[in-house]
Every structure is written in structure tokens, then in C-alpha cells.
Amino acid sequence: MSSPHLKKAIAALGVTEICPRSLNVSVRDDFDSSSEPAELVVQWRHNLKKISVTEMHGPEGEKDSTQRQVLFTIETGLRYVTDPEADPNDIDESAIGVEILADFRVTYSAGEELDQECLEEVGNTNALYHVWPYWRELIQSTCARFGLPPMVLPMYQLPVSNQAEDSDGD
């Protein structure tokens, strides 16, 4: 079940564009690209980085001539760690064999003005959900192009809200 903020935002927003904005691939010189993925520790992350709202005004006198766009920047990252004993929160640079970092921009057309709480909820759930297939494809093609062990990210699962968990128990 969606929160009221998320429901309002979903009704007001429509995806118009998803595209990468930055990509950084680092492969350590001595990384053995013939390693099996099972021999490596794979870590990934994804976060809402930025929200921007733009308004474009049409010719004066036209009713409803303002067009709003909401741009979400989602940062993603994946790395192969060669030391299975490494603390995930404190990894030495020498233990990172491969790191792939990318920022994606998701642009939505907005039928109405939304408050910051609505936008943050969309950015932390739906925007990431919309980016995920592009991120999965980028990882797969980057690994192939760089001769790296293949990695297939799992399908993205939207977080379950507390309201949904409460209603399941009824």
C-alpha cells in the first residue's frame, strides 16, 4: 500500500526521460578478470542524490501554459571486493578489484506542484524503480566490455511500507 504522499505524486508525475549522467569504471591493474563471481564479494549501493524542479512558462495569456519538470539524480555503484574478510564499511582500496559508479537522471513531467515530502518519497522509491533496468543493463554491458566477471543484478523490489505490513497481519 502506498502512502498518501506517494499516491499524490504518482498521480501527478509521468516519466519523460531516463539517462545516465556520469559513469566511472575503475579496474585495479592486478585484478584477475578470470575470477569467478563466487570468489568475489559483490557490493552495490543506490541513493537519491538530488531533486530539482524546473518550470517553463509558455506565451503570456495562455491558460495553464506552465510546464513543470521534476529531475531526480540517482547515484548507483557496484564493486567487486577481492578480500572476503573485509569489513563492508571500512574497505581498504587495495581490496577493491573493480568499481563501477553511475549517476542517472530521471525526468518526470509534473501535472501539479508537489511538496518536498512527496518528491523525496518518489525519489527514494519510484525513481529508483524506474532507473533499475537501465542500471542492470549498464552493469551487464560494462562487465562484458571490460572483460570482467559477469554480474546480473537482481530484479528491484520496492520497499514494503509499514502500512502494507500492518494490513497483511489483519
Task: Tag the structure with descriptive keywords.
disordered C terminus; about 170 residues; alpha+beta; elongated
Radius of gyration: 20 Å
User: Please, how many helices?
Assistant: 4
Query: What is the general shape?
Result: elongated
How far apart are the first and last residues' alpha carbons, in Å? Answer: 14 Å
Number of strands: 4
What share of the residues does DSSP label as strand, in percent? 35-45%
In terms of per-residue confidence, which ranges show pLDDT below 50 for 5 or more consecutive residues? 162-170
Helix content: 25-40%
Largest sheet: 4 strands, antiparallel
Mean pLDDT across the residues is 85
Provide an overview of this structure.
- The chain has 170 residues and is of the alpha+beta class.
- It is 26% helix and 37% strand.
- It has helices at 4-12, 116-124, 126-145, 162-168, and strands at residues 13-27, 41-57, 66-81, 96-110.
- A 4-stranded antiparallel β-sheet has the order 1-4-3-2.
- Helix 1 packs across helix 2.
- It starts with a helix and ends with a helix.
- Mean pLDDT is 85; it is low at 162-170.
